[in-house]
Amino acid sequence: MRAVKTQDISCNDLTWKIEYDPSRCTMCGSCVASCSFKAIHVAVERRDMTYSEAETPMPVKKHMARPVIEQVASLTNYCRGCGMCEKVCPNHAIHPVRNPDTRKTLLSKDSGPIKRGGRTNLNAQRTLDAIVVGRISQMTDPSLDAARHTFDIRSPLGRVLAARDLPLKVENGKLVPSGHTPPVHWIYPLIFSDMSIGALSTRAWEAVALAVGYLNEKCGLPVRMSSGEGGMPMGLLKSDYLKYFIIQIASGHFGWNRIIKAMPQMVTDPAGVLIKIGQGAKPGDGGLLPAAKVAEHVQAIRGVPKATLASPPNHQGLYSIEESVQKMHLSMSAAFGFRVPVAIKCAASATSVSVYNNLLRDPYHVCGGFFLDGIQGGTGAANEISLDHTGHPVVSKIRDCYLAAVKQGLQGQIPLYGGGGIGMTGNAAADAFKMMCLGANGVFTGKVLIQLLGCVGNEHGRCNACNTGKCPTGICTQDPRLVKRLDVDKGAQKIVDYVLTFDMELKKLMAPIGNSSLPIGRSDALVATDKAVADRLGIQYVC
Amino acid sequence: MCRIGSIKSKVPIPPSMALHLMLPQQEGHDNSGFAMVMQDLYGVFSAYKDKPLLSLACTQRGADLVEEYMDSHNFTQVAEWLPVPDKKSGLDIKAMPYYIFRNYDYPEDAAQMTQKEREELLLDTRLALRKLLAENNAGYVYSFWPDVLTLKEIGDPRDIATYFRLWDDNGCLAAKSIVAQCRQNTNYDIVRYAAHPFFLEGYTLCANGENTFYTKNKEFQSHLHRGYIGFESDSQCFLNTLHYVHRELGWPLSYYKHVITPLPFEEIQKRPDKDVLLDIRESLANLEINGPNTVIAVLPDGQMMTCCDSKKLRPVVVGRTDDRVAISSEVCGLNEIMPDRDQTKDIYPNEREIVVIDNDLEVTRCEQ
């Protein structure tokens, strides 16, 4: 008999408990083999059993040592609730159950702040669900037919000039260009958000990229994908498909050595450059790629040794927003001959309107987009304290920024893109539509994409192990054995199907309000069932 | 749904012709008002075509306020026509105490002004009068512009015409261009300013439909020009955009259509002028309209035009004879005032064109 101290960790201290039915277990070992966290193992239990083998009852009592599957009581190899064991069990003998009595957070601080991936588990409120598309075309104007009418679902990426500032002159009754305008690309209003090679497995990144290629080439939807901080494969940089990608530069500048080296061989321009200032999931923190995920190919792309890659919280050398505009925007614009829109991504913050005002008023007209990332955005790795306790919801902040621009008559000049929790309930189209009515030109989403690939993580504490390198679905890991679990083609197809449905669903929302173009800023199309939400966003309260 | 109509003629026509154009279209509708803008005036205003004409409906107090304001700003009255109403009982009209149509001479210092500066002065004066009258709840000023007369009232259009003796065709009122409409606002509050046609610096416009991008248009236009005010009706946005594109930006009229109903991106990509069209779509995205609409407008140079929404969800037809062209929501209106025209020459404008009628009554269809 082993000694047990009351301070010892038991399974009841953990977030998830494994429910196991030995009578159904065939001892095939699949669950243990599939658990990337080593949260279950094969153990031996003493069993007392009374049984009879004769035709008439002849009870015999027997002491046996029986192999069983047992949960590991550990704060390192603990069950994340991913459910892989349940998925692979041929006999429904095992599954994780959420433990309401968990003490894990309390007990896990021995080795510093808790780190995890995923999104906030504390602030997953759904403002957008308190909003309904309530201005329906009835008699005064006809609803459109989502299946038969044509819809123009495109959003600008790039700095839009005021009409008065357009370099146009009249010649023979026609307007003709008489100067340079900043580059503006009309893209699909759903941008695949920045998830790096490194944060994602190469195959997962490839699956997302494959979906982008298919959506563009076969479906005619100009969906753009941000590379994330960490560079891109050389082959892709030199290919014609680069035009579908927005290259990101973040504070670590990872991957840019290779990007710059590839420039002379680029056959086309990228869709844009996205300067990442901050991230909604962990505002004020830089990117974080734990050493466990810095595999050889990641080292090669980024030009780094195998070590934890912590990007600084700021772009070094930028001490003011004016500098940011001059240094980052101008140098990035210049690098691509002022042919590529350069946008900026910030964590939503109480200061977002100030930032947006600064960008709107910059005399160079260089900022091609303002990406606001809310607290509900996901991440590959962050301190849990940042994930759960820092950040700002994106919905009201997008509205604030839009209205700030309206107040100055500058709406639409720097396109607004909102992200962070878009599609959290699975209905990204509804979220996107409402965000656009509130003033966003489009939305960006990342978590939904990996969930479509198979990620089972959620905002209720399930899995969220993207930082460990042990992602059970092969998405957020560089372990070749785990990565093999991911079917790239199937994943890409799932994303393509989702976006095609997203497109149809957008039309199903545009049609009833009688719009064939995106209703950017059409707050009159929305009503709120929550008075506080209605008042805050300036839309009609209904009950 | 409103019905709208306009007539452009080589010879001066009385307002009753506009009523004859409109009334057959009004069957089954609420007939809740009458509004018209007459341009290129004859009759009592023949001699004052270059003098700005103030169109006003007001109380006694309003009349005093206006007179005081105009005096203090050195406008000199040169002519006046006060309708003598037929106040017989039973007429369905919510009449104002006074209707004033008065020509003024410009202040002396206007002699040194450019044409544009004089026009700005007229606008500022109208806006100041509007503010003054609104603050005192003393009336409405509809237009202050040379050779332009605006009349708007609430009630049954037939009775309104009786009240103003428009059926008499007594020659007082006549014009070569009339835009008319026979309903009050049905979507929003019934206020006289919400009744189209609307007028701004030489531009007249009325619209039949529902502008579902009203909020976007309004939020954007509020900052574009001091004359874009009121927004009592979503249709005012059409006029503001026409004024902005044509006058403020100085773009050719054909670009108005590109602004309010831009081509789909796929079509733009096939055009040789795609760079310009994309620039326009980017910069003026907030002036795009959506929803079902037909627009009739008159430009400062007298040209009349009509166009529709991008899905052609509202009707309009253009009919013509040798000395007259009329635009009407429904063909029955044309049949009433020009029964002998060649109907095979009627034009039913499509969703991608502007139909322009110039001062020689040449009709041009401009493909977008």
* Overall shape of chain B: globular
From the spread of the alpha carbons, the general shape of chain A counts as globular
Tell me the Rg of chain A in angstroms: 26 Å
CATH-derived architecture of chain B: 4-Layer Sandwich
Please give the share of residues in helix of chain B.
25-40%
Radius of gyration of chain B: 20 Å
Instruction: List unreliable stretches of 5+ residues of chain A.
Output: none
If helices are DSSP runs of H or I spanning 4 or more residues, what is the number of helices of chain B? Answer: 10
Helix content of chain A: 25-40%
Strand percent estimate of chain A? 15-25%
Ends of chain B: how far apart?
26 Å
**The CATH top-level class label of the largest domain in chain A:** Alpha Beta
Instruction: Name the CATH homologous superfamily of the largest domain in chain A.
Output: Aldolase class I
Name of the CATH architecture of the largest domain in chain A: Alpha-Beta Barrel
Written overview of the protein:
The complex is a heterodimer of chains A (543) and B (368). Chain A is built from 16 helices and 23 strands. By secondary structure, chain A is an alpha/beta fold. Chain A has 2 domains: 11-112, Alpha-Beta Plaits (2-Layer Sandwich); 144-514, TIM Barrel, CATH 3.20.20. The model of chain A has no long low-confidence stretch (mean pLDDT 94). Chain B has a single domain (4-367), classed as Glutamine Phosphoribosylpyrophosphate, subunit 1, domain 1 (4-Layer Sandwich), CATH 3.60.20.10. Chain B contains 10 helices and 16 strands. Chain B has helices at 15-22, 60-72, 115-135, 157-163, 214-221, 236-248, 254-260, 265-269, 274-283, 331-337, and strands at residues 4-13, 33-43, 52-58, 76-81, 98-105, 139-146, 148-154, 173-181, 198-200, 203-209, 293-298, 304-308, 317-321, 324-328, 353-357, 363-367. In chain B, the strands form 3 sheets. A 6-stranded antiparallel beta sheet of chain B has the order 7-2-8-1-14-13, with helices on one face. In chain B, strands 9-10-11-12-15-16 form a 6-stranded antiparallel beta sheet, with helices on one face. In chain B, a hairpin with a 5-residue loop joins strand 15 and strand 16 (363-367). In chain B, helix 1 (15-22) packs across helix 10 (331-337), helix 2 packs antiparallel against helix 3 and helix 6 (236-248) packs across helix 7 (254-260). The model of chain B has no long low-confidence stretch (mean pLDDT 94). The chains are: A alpha/beta (543), B alpha+beta (368). The interface between A and B is large, with 43 and 43 residues.
